[in-house]
Specification:
binds zinc ion; two-stranded antiparallel sheet; 26% helix; binds ligand K1U; alpha+beta
């Protein structure tokens, strides 16, 4: 297994629509394994294929120790509203409050092509919506008000210097974040 480089905000791959997966090959399983390793090393609870520069409609999640591989996922039910402070492995150290559906049901297939249905509320529900957004080229900053988004983008203009080539190399065991407090970075 390998830890893959994570693409950060500004890389066009994060804004592209993904392509549905129709073949389940050993290479796909290798990508899934590498995505789990990368997500765990980065202390994330989800990771979508575009974040590692891939165009497959595929995401992995590990929320409260429950792993999910979701291929071609679609939200088939949603209800209520929840506000959650979100971050993104592709926009390190910046956070914002996002309004999402409070409960979602997602249908997808797993790595073996078997149909799966996942219901999520709270962290799992938010993570499902955040990851499925990634598969359609959408980022949590797109849910912020114009002013909050502009402020975050101005901060990102400084922070992105840390990521030459818009690539984040995750070192296993390394703490994430910079020296600033998270509260300062909240929008
Ligand atoms: O897609 C990504 O960038 C991963 C991102 C997904 C996410 C889930 C939920 C809310 C916002 C964003 C993360 O995994 S950020 C890490 C995170 O939010 C977290 C980590 C450990 C415990 C709880 C949350
Ligand atoms: Zn993200």
């Amino acid at each position: 297994m390998s830890i893959l480089p994570i693409r950060v905000l500004g890389d066009p791959v994060l804004r592209e629509e993904t392509k549905p997966v129709d073949t389940f090959t050993p290479e796909l399983q290798q990508l899934i394994d590498d995505m789990f390793e990368t997500m765990h090393a980065a202390h994330g609870v989800g990771l979508a294929a575009p974040q590692v520069g891939r165009s497959e409609r595929l995401t992995v999640l590990d929320v409260h120790g429950e792993r999910h591989v979701l291929i071609n996922p679609e939200i088939v039910e949603r209800e209520g509203t929840i506000k959650w402070e979100e971050g993104c492995l592709s926009i390190p150290d910046l956070y914002g409050d996002v309004s999402r559906s409070a409960r979602v049901v997602v249908e997808a297939v797993d790595a073996g092509g078997k149909a799966v249905r996942v219901e999520g509320t709270e962290l799992l529900g938010v993570c499902l919506q955040h990851e499925i957004d990634h598969l359609h080229g959408k980022l949590f900053i797109d849910h912020l008000s114009f002013l909050k988004r502009q402020k975050l983008l101005a901060e990102w203009d400084e922070k992105k210097q840390k990521y030459p080539g818009l690539i984040r190399i995750v070192v296993p065991g390394e703490e994430d974040g910079d020296d600033d407090s998270r509260e300062d970075e909240k929008l």
